[in-house]
Histidine biosynthesis bifunctional protein HisIE
Amino acid sequence: MSQALLKTIDWTKTPLLPVIAQEARNGDVLMLAYMNEEALMLTLSTGFAHYYSRSRQSLWKKGESSGHVQHVQEAYLDCDSDTLLLKVEQEGVACHTGRSSCFFNRLDKDEAPKEEAKAIQGYSISDTIYHIVQERKHADPKTSYVASLLQKGDNSILKKVVEEAGEFCFAIKDGESKEIIYEAADLMFHTLVALGAKDIHPSLISKELERRLGLSGIEEKNSRNEH
């Protein structure tokens, strides 16, 4: 790696660099993501693309859960030292929708995507729902339940969360396992829609729960008051 070029990156000014990933074999543009300094150093040292997820607020290796990794063939820094280009050999697909590239929505003409979306094994259900919510922000509310909720705004979304929470509580009280599971799924789904509406990835909730492990209830409340 070129130490001289690395020193030209001002990580204080730009802590996250945009990264364009391009298929080395045919030149197709696959995706745009972001790297912090740690992600870039891991990418250069391992030969596998690592990025920093702004929604999860954490480092991630591309394809770690799905197997759709990116083998880095070449890495370039632009003239202003604030944008990166990776030429990669992509295993599987680059996009979480199951398409080969994230750039499938054509703007200059009304044209349907050439590839159909496909489920990718390895993604958690909460991650999948989060991405669906993000996509439904631009969908037709007449054809999508999630889009219709998002269009109606916070009050409608939160009304559904409260409604589903009540039904879950009644199911717990009745003690029927099948109903408890069904209502819990409804509650979790609408909670994920509410989180997605605010661009909060469910993994951040998992991190908060992990932080609380080992803390007593009193300690947790005290730590909350300190903030």
Q: What stands out?
A: The chain has a mean pLDDT of 91. The chain has two domains: 3-90, 125-226.
